[in-house]
Every structure is written in C-alpha cells, then in structure tokens.
Amino acid sequence: MPSNIVRVETTPKLGEGMRDVRGDSVKRQLAADHNIKIESVRSIVGFLIDSEISAEQISSRVDDVFADPIIEESTTDSLHLENQDLFPEPADIVVTIGFKAGVTDNPGKAALDGFLTLFPDAGEGSRISTYITYVFHGVPNDVEVEWLSKQLHNGLIERALFSKSGEDYPRIEYVPVTPIDYSPPSTIDLEVSDDELMRLSEEGLLALNLEEMQTIQAHYRDPKIRQDRAEVGLPENAPTDVELECLAQTWSEHCKHKIFAAHINHIDKETGEESQIDSLFKTHIMKPTLEMKDEVDWLLSVFHDNSGVIAWDDEWSMCMKAETHNSPSALDPYGGAMTGIVGVNRDILGTGLGARPIANTDVFCFGPPDWEGDLPDNLFHPSRVLRGVHAGVRVGGNESGIPTVNGAIVFDDRYIGKPLVYCGTIGIMPRKLADGRESHEKNPQPGDRVYMVGGRVGYDGIHGATFSSLELTEESPSSAVQIGDPITQKKMVDMILEARDAGLITCITDNGAGGLSSSIGEMAEYTNGCKIDLGKVPLKQEGLSSWEILVSESQERMTVAVRESDVAAFEKLANLHEVEATWVADFTNTGQFHVVHGEKTVASLPIEFLHDGVPQLQLESEWIKPTLTPFTPPSNVQHSDLLLRMLSRPNIASKETWVRQYDHEVIAQTAVKPFVGVARDGPGDAGLLAPIHGSTKGLVVSNGISPRYSDIDAGAMAAAAVDEAVRNAVCTGVDLSKVAGLDNFCWPDPIESKKTPDGKFKLAQLVRANRELERICRAYFVPCISGKDSMKNDYGSGENKISIPPTLLFSLFGDHPDVRYTTTSDLKPGESLYLVGESKQELGASEISFMMKEAGEAEGIGGEVPQLPNPEKNLASYKALTKTIQSGLVRTAHDCSEGGVAVAIAEMCIGGRCGAAIDIDGPGEADIWGRLWGESLGRIIVGVKQENRLEFLSQMKGHSLTYMGEVTDGNTLSIWDGDDLIIESNVEDMVSAWKGSLDMTGGDQ
Amino acid sequence: MVDTPKVAVLFGFGINCDRETAAVFDLAGATSERVHVNHFVNGERDLSEFHILAVPGGFSFGDHLGSGRLLGNRMRFAMREQLTAFVSAGKPIIGICNGFQVLVKTGLLPGKEVPDFEQRASLTLNNSGRYEDRWVTLEFDPESPCIWTKGITRIECPVRHGEGRFVMPSTTDLDELQANHQIATRYVDPSTEPGQGITDETLPFPICPNGSIRNIAGICDPTGLVFGLMPHPEAAYATFLHPHHTRSDVNEEILGEGMQIFRNAVEYAQANL
Lengths: 1005, 273
Hints:
The complex is a heterodimer.
Chain A: E1 4-12, H1 21-34, E2 40-51, H2 55-65, E3 72-76, E4 93-99, H3 106-118, E5 127-137, H4 145-152, E6 158-164, H5 194-203, H6 210-219, H7 223-232, H8 241-250, H9 253-256, E7 263-268, E8 274-278, H10 280-295, E9 299-301, E10 308-311, E11 316-324, H11 326-331, H12 333-349, E12 356-366, H13 382-400, E13 404-411, E14 420-430, E15 449-454, H14 464-468, H15 486-501, E16 507-510, H16 515-527, E17 530-533, H17 546-551, E18 557-562, H18 567-576, E19 581-587, E20 592-597, E21 600-606, H19 607-612, E22 618-623, H20 639-647, H21 656-659, E23 670-672, E24 675-676, E25 682-683, E26 687-689, E27 698-704, H22 714-732, E28 739-746, H23 759-780, E29 784-790, E30 794-795, E31 802-803, E32 807-816, E33 831-836, H24 847-854, H25 871-886, E34 890-895, H26 900-912, E35 915-919, H27 928-933, E36 940-945, H28 949-955, E37 961-968, E38 972-977, E39 980-986, H29 987-996
Parallel strand pairs in A: 7-22, 12-13, 17-20, 28-29, 35-38
Antiparallel strand pairs in A: 1-2, 1-3, 2-5, 4-5, 4-6, 7-8, 9-10, 10-11, 11-14, 12-14, 15-18, 15-19, 16-18, 17-19, 20-21, 23-26, 24-25, 26-27, 27-32, 28-32, 30-31, 33-36, 33-37, 34-36, 35-37, 38-39
Chain B: E1 6-11, H1 18-27, E2 31-36, H2 37-41, E3 52-55, H3 69-78, H4 80-88, E4 93-96, H5 98-106, E5 122-124, E6 132-140, E7 154-161, E8 165-167, H6 171-179, E9 185-187, E10 216-220, E11 226-229, H7 259-272
Parallel strand pairs in B: 1-2, 1-3, 3-4, 4-11
Antiparallel strand pairs in B: 5-8, 6-7, 6-9, 9-10, 10-11
C-alpha cells in the first residue's frame, strides 16, 4: 500500500490577459445571492497524491499532468498561500473544501488516470484526493467565516477548514479511514410481537408496514420453505439480514408502487358516489394503453421494461423514460440531481438490449428563489437548491453528450419542503440487430453469465429506495446521497452500445434503486432463477457486509447478461474501453433468488415470493370539494402594468440564464431549440429533433405541468398537464397519430395516519387525477407507455408539515414527418394572428390570481379552474392545425398557458422583437380578465402570412378559430377589447421585465 | 489520388460529438469511421490507414484537470510517432471544441512545421465563468494557409463550451500568429458587412462568447493542415438546425453552411493525397 503523500497545488496566473475566473464567479455569486461585496476572491486547486512516487519525481512532471504551464502556477509539497510572490497580502478569510471520506471525487479520479499515464508504476492502491481553496481579500466586517464556509460547501458530503485574518492557513489532509471488518450475515428473529416487528422495520429503515412484516413472518413459518432452507444451510425459521434487506428493497414503495397497486375504497362526498378501485395503475393507466395497443402497430413495448418503446420507422425505434430524484436533491441538490439525470440515462441504456440516449428533458419544481420567509431546519434556501440542482443536471447532461432539449421550472412555496427534480431521457435503437433479434426484447437463458459493468460498490447509496419511501426528516441518512460520475458512465455507454451491435447482450438492466438485489432479481424473472456470488463483486472499500453489497445503489453500474460463448469478446470490449466488467452471477431456472458470499449461502428466496409476495394495500379515499375564497379582481387596474409584473413572475419569466448552460445541440439534431426568434431568446414550446443525420424525419418532445390547479381539483390539474404537453407538440406540427406519453406523479403521502390526518383527501386527489388522465389520454389517443410515482413528498410533521401540491408531469414524444415544416413562437413580419380554441371565464388557481393574492390585491385564488369538457373537439382542431403546419402554411404558433393570451402574445412579440395589435373580443361569455389572463386549455395563437391566409382559413374551417389582429411594424404591443385599448406595452420593456427576474448571474463578467 | 478519403473520428473517454462529426464527413463525400483512442494507442489500428483525422468535441476525462488535457497527454505520449508521421504526410487534422483543446494541449496547435509537442497556448475558462450554448458569427482570414477554411467568408454556428478563451503567454506570440495568418477564424459582430467583421479589439459578450483575446475562435498550424476551433460547424450541417430556419419559407435545401469546412478537407485530400 502506498503511503507517501505528496501535495500539489495550482492557481491561475494573473495579469496580461489572465484572470482567476473561478474566484471571480464566487465573488459575483455572493453579490447576486446575498448582496455581499468582496474585493477579491482567488482560487487554488489542490491534489493529495498517495503513491510510491517521490515529491521530486512528481515535481519534475507537475506541468505534464496537474498544472497547465501557460495559465497556472504550480507548487509541490507546499501551500501556494505561503508564497509571498503569489499572495503578497495576507488573506482576510481562507476556506478550503475537500470531500468527506468515501464521497465520489471525480477530479481526483481523472487526476489519478492522468497520473498513472505518466507513472505506471505508482503502486497498487495509489489514490488522489482533490480540494479547493478560496482566498478572500477585502471581506466586509459583518461576514462570519462560518457562514461563508457554509455557503461554499455542503456538510453532508464535504468538509471545510478555514482561517481568519492572522490565523495559520488551513492545510487539509486525508482523513484516516478506520478499516471496517466484514461482519457475517446475522439472523433476524421474526417470532416477536407486532410492536417489535414495526420497531425492526423502523429502526432498520426498511419502510415495511405491519402487514408486510407479518407476510414475511408467515413465509418463514411455511414447513416447505423451512425444509428448502435447511438444504442450502440457511437458518430454517428466520430470515438472514440479507434476505430481509432484499425484501425491503424489492417491496419498497419506490420499486413496487404499492399505492398505485392498492385496493381503494373511494367516496365522493360531492356526488355521493362510492366505488372500489382495484389498482389505479391497472385501471386507469395500463388498461387504456393496452386497449390502444390493440389498435396500432407501433407500440412495441409498454410497462414491463425500463422504458416504453415505440416503432419510429421501419429501421429505428424510440423509447422514453422520466424519473424523479426528489429526496436526494433536497439533501444534496448537486449530487442528487446529477444522479437523477445519469440514472434515467441508464434506464434508456437498460431498455431492450440497450438503447442510446439522445435527448434529456428536465422539469424542476422549487420554492421561490427570492424567498424571505422562515426555512425549516435541514432545508436549503430555494435559490441554493436551484443552483445546485441546475449544476448537477448541467454537468450530468453536458458531460454525457446528451442534449437537454425541453423542460420547465415551476415555483411554489410548498416546494421548499421537497423540491421536485424530474429528469427524462429519450433513446433510440435499431429495430433489429445484425443477428436478426429484435432489440426491444430481452432474451436471457439459464446458464447466461451476469456481469456487473461500470462502477464499483460502496457505502454510498445504501438505502436509497427505502429512504425515498419515507418522508424527509432532520435525521435523513447521508449514505442516501451520492455524486454521479458522468465519464465513467459515458465510457460504459460507449462500450455497451458496441457490445449490443456485436450481438453480445442477451439481457440488460440498470442498477438503480435496490442495487443488485433489484437488477438481477428483476432479470431473474425471465429465466426463473439466479445465483449471485457477492464475493465476486468489486468493492470501493473492503468490509461491506453481504446485505450492503446486495442493496447498495452505488452509481454508474449496469447488469448485463452474456452467453458463455460471447464472454471473451465481451471482456475484450470492456478492456478496450477501460470499463470494469465483472462476472458476478448466473441465470438459472431453479425458481430461487439464490445468493452466496464465497462458499456460504447468505440468502435464498423464491422468485415468486420476492416479486409477487407483497400484500395489496387497502386504502380509503374521500373527496370533499375544497372551499376556497374566490379570486375577485379589483377594478381600476392598469392591465399594462399587470403585464410587466406577470412577465417577471418566476413561473413565467425567461429561464435563459439557466437553460443556456445546458448543451441543447450536441448530436447536431435539434431543429427547434429552447430559444427561438430574432435574438434567439424567445420561448420554444416543444423540442423537435432530426435524430438521423442527413434525414429530415423528426421526433417531438414536450412536457405539461400545472400543479397549482390541484388547489381546486387535482383532476383538472392532470387534464391540464396532458393538454399542455399535447398542445406544445401540436405547435411543432407533430403527427398526432403517433404520440406516446409518460405519467410521472409526485404526491404528498396519501395514506391516512397519525402523521397524515388528511390522507383520505390526498388519495381522493390521486383518484381524480388518474380518472382525468385516462379520459384525456383516451380522447387524444396518447397511450401512457411508461411512468413513475413518488408518493412521500412531505417534510416534517404536525403543524410544521409541508406537503407539496399534488403534481403530475406529463411528458410526451411523438413522430414528425419533416422537421423543416414546423413553427416557432416568434412573430414574423406581416403575419395575421388567430386564436385556435376559446377563452372561458377560468381564472381559478391562475398565475394572475396567485400574483394578486400575494400582493394583497385579491382575497383568494378560488373560482373555475380550466377544464376540458370536450377533448374530442380540441383534438379535431389540433389535427387540422398540424396539417397546416406540415404543409408549410404556418410558421408561427405558441400555446397559451400561464398568464393566458396576454402573456402568450407578449412572448411572441419578444421572440419577434416586434409589435402586434390584437383584439381579444371573441365568442363565449368570458370577461376581460378571463380573455386576457385566464388559462383556458386548448388554445394556441397562430401567425399566418398574408399569402397563406385563404388556404389556412379553408383548412381550419369548422374548428374554433378567431381572428385576433396583425403583427405591426413598430415595437408596441397593443391589446384591444373592441374599441377599448386595454394594454399598450413596448417590446423592450417587455424584454427586460421577462428576462430580468431569474437572471441571478450577478453580471456577465 | 484518393476518390473517397478515409476519415478517422476519435471516440472514447468522454468524447461525445463523434457521431455527428463522422456523419458530416460522410455527407461531404468521405468515408468516416469512429475509432476508439485505445485502438491507436495499443497498436491494433494505425493512423496511416486514414487520410483525415478528426478530434471531436466532448468532455474527455471530464475536463477535470483542464479541458482536453488528459486526452492530450494520451496522444502526446502514446501516439506521438503516428501523429508525427500523419502530419509529415501532409494529411489534414481538425479539432473541434474539446478536440481543439486537445490539439492545443498536445502542442499540435499553434504548432511548428514539424510537430515538437510543446504546448504554446491554452484555452481557459470563459470570462463569464459559465458553460453556454449559443450561436455565434464567425469570419475567416482570407489569407490564412488553413486548407479547411478556404473560400469561406462568414458562417453562423453554435459554441458550447465553458473553457474557450484562447490565451498565449505574451502579446508577441499573438502578433506572430496573426502575421502568419494562423488566426484562421474569429468571432465577429453579425451586424457588420460580411468580410468586414474581423477586429483585434475584444468584442463584448455575447458576440465574443468567452472573452477570447482578439476574438480568436480557431487557429491553424503553419502548414494550414491542422485546424482547431471552439465553435461547432458540424452542428450547422443542416439548414434546419439554424435557429432562424422558421423565420422564412421552408428551405428545400438540406445541407447548411457548416458543411463547407468539411468539404474543403475532403476536396484537399482528393486533390493531394
């Protein structure tokens, strides 16, 4: 073992065109977020190299690996801060941040790789740990060093050392890690009282309820089971800890979706209905999709795989998956979000025989970034959550080479308790492999070898699945947090796709929640059995016990099955790509999930019991219509003022600063980008891709989310989400005959208990959301091919409990005949403007109602929430509109959502940097407020050039279409109600209102 | 004379623009192959099989020790002979974004007539401190020896980087580069007349997206065969990838202005190799 530790530090050179950008960024951010003006911040990056190479040897090669001699100063075995030439003035404050032991240190890994290129004989077990030091000069007196250090690091995963003026500068070292001795599996006695069973579940973070614990207890009383166990040398009448942990993972809410599978007694106090629902999932999601599957030939694989697959054309199929990573993102926004995005990428890689991720979507729900109220203990300020989550998703997506093509950021106070981080990925795969197998089907056989590919297993990520099935508390475990490693994963993706094309893979899945116990356990259903040897599993650190190895969710791992005859070729590929691939298990047909650790059997569970043994929950649901103070707008309001205020609302304002930091164009396929228009800063509605280079055939990606409607009716919330996603896709000219959806539910705990006295109501909200989801999806013919639910989005308990608004994200992907024939939201010169759909008096839970209530200008947000009484009619006009787009008649379209017609037309003027004159008068009974600010569904504003007007009108005949006005030459938006001018606004004023509020950069330089 | 030049497009270790880079060479009339770096390192393949080498964009090794540095090291130490032979055979090399960073850190750019693998310049963090994806306008030095940029006045394409600010140790180094017409392409203000945009004064953000000295976007070696640039011309290979493509009637022509750079190299190889 190496024991010679050498320190190397680098810092940017200054002067003649050189600067310390990292330090400057910290300075700007402190100014932007906290209004603290600091004279200068400088940065030093440090490396602690533990190897057999001497300081002299390292010093002679330091500029070959650690420092860039053109732009950096380096030093070996000393602190830069002690060099008076570089740091002539003593620092006011110095903060040094390093990782805690066991936390993924990506720069350290990369440095080690580079180091070993130069010093191949550095010694087995060489390691490099990195740190960063910030050096502050000119710090205001009231800034506390402890506070400053907290802003710069997250104590859960990082450690910080600091010094104040006059003190010795901090010198960070390796933390000695006490080696942990392997402890053999223990036996858990389940022949105990019910109270004791629950104590076992709670203290062990198993997240199993009493009935589930009793089911497990009963399993071990079965004489046949006892006999089987005796034969393999296991304790006959009690589980090992390995078995109990494995069951807890597999039966977790996260993995088994027990609430969606529950039997529900639903009572509707509004209508008097009482009904029984045997699984919301089977009733409202699976059944409609399977019925639609019978009608079309393009639904290749639904529900059972890691993502749903559709046939895109004869050669290629597409798949999509979206997931949430809420709890980890609350604890460590950066690491939690990064593992969210790279995790969902692996779901795509694990679909069929392996699909290639080609696009990401990110939808976040946060507390208001300018929140000034109290924050519960252990929660970060929303602005910090935003920065961290954004950075995690940015690094995860960009470094993986996957463009982020569509998304949203939604703000509401209640997301302070639990941010929602939805990450979605689309994948592509050839319909058939060279050997003739269809790539969307897995086909493992008993005898196939099972490899664990990618990263190693460590303490990080133990209990993620069960933890996410519990509410967040101050004692939430730090082992549930991990940092992703996109480069390890990228190497693995490259390797696996080559292995797939060479026909070497018979089955593949990712290691996410539940680790090997879930991944191998699920795949073992295909052959009806497996045998895992935990002793073969490569570990990050020695000493992990058997159950920890089995359930650890350490990242960047896939589980791949390979025929014995292909083993050599598979291992050769892994070697080429420098990817670790280890044979850890075999598929069998014994009916058993059999786990050994070396020679000793540590678990044996019948596959059937493992997967189907969990008892169905019995739940109560009761709908009582909420009574809310109605939104009554005041009279004497200047709508022009309201427009600028609305444009700067975080829910409406431009997210450009954030979204521009995502690579949205890698792969050279993004035909409609997140930014459109003259200055390339107008809002894009849906993403449009041309994934095959040289071809114009397209794929549309869009999202719909409208959580605040749940305040009035979660059913309307669900309908609005589906309609918004479809409407956005319609704006690109999607082919509505081939569109598939994904439902991602994030709910507060809907099970009535002491902690959740309103559980029945929350469950009734879930019932209503599912019913509307089914109704609209059937009407629009959008099968839900994959989905996910996260059901414990609460913080704390009692009076201080914060529950998120019930939230459904509806994501959609669909076919597009030719990406050249599409629209964007920016107005073009000389266009006439039309409204597709109808404005109704629907202002309940609208953005304007929340804005005026928060400002004390209105009493409440209640009233009519947008509804979709006749979706068939909407679909007909959507279909007609997509035809006009596909024939090139229409080049401008934008959907009306938050802020209604007024905000939509303003955004279109911003994109076109032009004016428009429109009249909001039209059919229906809505008043000015409803027509300007109401958020009625089914509406799209369309711009048509003069020469195309007649043809457009003739094709739209019979559909709800109202002429609104014209694009004008000037730069003023004027909105009329008949003869009354009600809004007049200059485009530059609208631009600054819209772009200012979420900028948060503290300036460009 | 070669009819269909063969192009090696490097991949592996976090390179991620390999597929589109390979595709644009195919569309330009070449035959491309994505080849894992280690195939060249371990000797299973040799650069001499190919006529053109492309080092695509991406995040090789996560850019953790400075962009392009670790991949640059692998090439500098393990592919030195192959690269020297490739360059002395008069074969073109392009590095795009991370590939440009790699070529600068191997010392192939700005380089010498005969490669000495000495690093002379660097690409460092954008002045904004942020990674950004945005479209820029580029102009080209008409007197540059660069074979990749012949006959091109101005194109638009995206930048997608956090470390694109070109720096050299001294002003005289830059003067020399400029005098040799090795500053093949620069960021320009789109409101200027085509051909009139190039200026030495650093343009404001976001016209010059990273604060690069003299608005440098890309440079070539003294022979003009090795070319590197931060922006992504391959991402402008099609008309429908331009952010303004919906602002006019549908353009039936599919291939976009980014193609010319790749066509130039293919034509050069056809005429000279």
